[in-house]
Inverse folding.
């Protein structure tokens, strides 16, 4: 039994509460991190300077710069150009398609963050697989896992940057691309072999959770979203209180959560009616919503009846094609409703239905808080849809692609990114300075505008990282890290340095499944370096092993946002990730046991 001081017990209890809060999801992770900061500074466990030191951390500046460079590459079309050319190599066989998209995900993850790599390759993977007669469920999990293992082979992953910063805080050299590429590259190769030789037989052959793979035919979407079940005709009687009012004045959608799809007036059909559209006597409203909601409108002087089954075909207008889009992970719109976003007035589009989990919602769509991975069935003018496609919060599996920017900006963005990332990755220039210089160069060359710079930075991630740094400091200053390190050392060191590294790796993998790799690096990182120094194990080797463990987010769809991104278009369940991810986790662990002694001196001289 360890003899801990009062301060150590306090920090240990705070760690437990923090993990529970992060696992429950009741509070945003960045808010939890700020509460941790205050809980350590106000009682005097750490000083004010230590509490705020994370906001001046080189890791935070580096990650902010990486966000800017990633968005610049996306906006200038560089990432899309690469993904399209990689997709052309996929062929028509399942094994080749899995190989190409897994390697493509790993390749892009070397230079941009995992979510961006997955998001830009997702439409290409869905399109190519459906054209070849292969279900997207056979391709999308390999794509997600490819981006994750690709993150093991580069310094430009958030957890890897955090671990490099922790190592520097202990007086050691920062990690470089050369530290990660050999070990991480081996992880990529072994994972690819597993997926092609065995894992692909574990992949389900399943329809997506929405209409995403319907051979890109928008005409299938009404059937997929089961619109016929909730389609109604409402005839305006001469005594109706709605006669003479506009749609907005009628407050049909606001009060009842019902969508007006069309208005029939004097044999003319007005699809996607404007809120200012007037309602006249003898008009017929085509409504979408639950029966009990629609029938409430009888009190307004409307005659309600089931709509004809062929109405969905009549609602198909080539000028206003039905389109499906997915809410991207970490999108700024998550948690907000379409009503709060003023989606209709801002974009001129109507959201008819929402697909979440395994079902379609056709009522109250406008007041449902959006979640990552939700699929929305929208209709409206093609030009408006193309405008929405430029927004980073929404992913269009079948397009329409946003118009490609001019080639000059793309070339400038690519050259600047390669130069800056190369200088930072090999530590020829300190990473924070390199990233800031790259961001400035991208602005000066017109590749990204100042307002886009501030939108590109995921401030919640930066606050999360900066506010969690004090927890590591508290573990060090109170001696808790040393005491926990003794437990690991006592249990594992008798079996050798590799056993200690492997034990810390598995511990990190476990933590990563419930709180994510970014937070896991902040929680486990200081402890791992302390353990290494106590046991005279190479701290750099330990840092690389823990960094790679933070990318082993294979077991659940919520372990990493890129998994969640693939959930709906692939039609996956949590069991799919557990089944295939378990094999990937075992393969990566075996690979670790092989590569660590091969590429690293495990003990200090």
């Amino acid at each position: 039994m360890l003899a801990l001081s009062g301060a150590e017990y306090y920090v240990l209890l705070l760690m437990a509460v923090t993990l529970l809060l992060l696992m429950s999801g009741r509070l945003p992770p960045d808010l939890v991190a700020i509460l941790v900061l205050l809980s350590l500074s106000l009682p005097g466990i750490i000083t004010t300077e230590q509490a705020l030191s994370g906001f001046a951390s080189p890791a935070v500046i580096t990650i902010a710069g990486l966000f800017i460079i990633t968005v610049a590459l996306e906006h200038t079309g560089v990432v899309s150009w690469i993904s399209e050319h990689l997709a052309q190599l996929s062929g028509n066989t399942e094994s080749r398609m899995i190989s190409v998209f897994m390697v493509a995900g790993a390749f892009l993850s070397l230079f941009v963050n995992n979510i961006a790599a997955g998001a830009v390759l997702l439409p290409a993977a869905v399109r190519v697989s459906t054209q070849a007669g292969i279900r997207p469920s056979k391709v999308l999990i390999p794509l997600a896992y490819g981006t994750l293992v690709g993150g093991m082979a580069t310094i430009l992953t958030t957890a890897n940057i955090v671990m490099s910063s922790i190592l520097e805080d202990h007086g050691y050299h920062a990690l470089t691309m050369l530290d990660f590429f050999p070990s991480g590259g081996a992880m990529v190769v072994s994972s690819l072999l597993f997926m092609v030789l065995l894992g692909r037989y574990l992949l389900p052959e399943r329809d997506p959770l929405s209409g995403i793979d319907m051979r890109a035919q928008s005409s299938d979407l009404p059937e997929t979203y089961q619109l016929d079940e909730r389609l109604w005709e409402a005839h305006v009687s001469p005594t109706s209180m709605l006669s003479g009012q506009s749609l907005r004045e009628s407050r049909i959608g606001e009060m009842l959560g019902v969508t007006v799809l069309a208005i029939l007036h004097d044999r003319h059909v007005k699809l996607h009616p404007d809120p200012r559209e007037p309602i006249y006597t003898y008009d017929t409203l085509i409504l979408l919503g639950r029966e009990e909601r629609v029938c409430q409108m009888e009190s307004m002087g409307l005659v309600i009846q089931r709509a004809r089954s062929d109405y969905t075909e009549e609602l198909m207008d080539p000028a206003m094609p039905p389109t499906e889009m997915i809410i991207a992970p970490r999108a700024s719109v998550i948690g907000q409703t379409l009503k709060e976003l003023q989606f209709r007035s801002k974009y001129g589009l109507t959201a008819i239905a929402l697909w979440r989990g395994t079902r379609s919602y056709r009522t109250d769509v406008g007041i449902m808080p959006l979640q990552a991975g939700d699929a929305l069935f929208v209709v409206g003018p093609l030009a408006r849809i193309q405008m929405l496609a430029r927004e980073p919060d929404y992913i269009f599996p079948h397009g329409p692609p946003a118009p490609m920017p001019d080639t000059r900006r793309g070339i400038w963005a690519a050259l600047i990114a390669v130069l800056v990332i190369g200088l930072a990755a090999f530590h020829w220039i300190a990473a924070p300075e390199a990233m800031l210089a790259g961001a400035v160069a991208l602005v000066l060359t017109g590749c990204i505008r100042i307002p886009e710079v501030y939108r590109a930075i995921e401030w919640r991630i930066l606050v999360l990282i900066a506010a969690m740094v004090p927890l590591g400091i508290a573990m060090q200053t109170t001696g808790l890290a040393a005491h926990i390190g003794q437990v690991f050392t006592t249990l594992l060191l008798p079996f050798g340095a590799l056993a200690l590294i492997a034990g810390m790796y598995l511990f990190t993998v476990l933590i990563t499944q419930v709180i994510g790799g970014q937070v896991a690096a902040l929680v486990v990182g200081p402890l791992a370096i302390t353990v290494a120094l106590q046991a005279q194990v190479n701290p750099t080797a330990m840092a690389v092993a823990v960094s790679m463990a933070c990318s082993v987010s294979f077991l659940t769809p919520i372990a990493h946002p890129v998994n969640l991104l693939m959930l709906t278009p692939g039609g996956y369940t949590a069991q799919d990730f557990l089944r295939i991810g378990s094999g990937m986790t075992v393969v990566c662990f075996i690979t670790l046991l092989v590569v660590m002694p091969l590429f690293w001196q495990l003990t200090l001289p």
Summary: The first helix runs from residue 6 to 24. Confidence is low (pLDDT under 50) at residues 211-219.
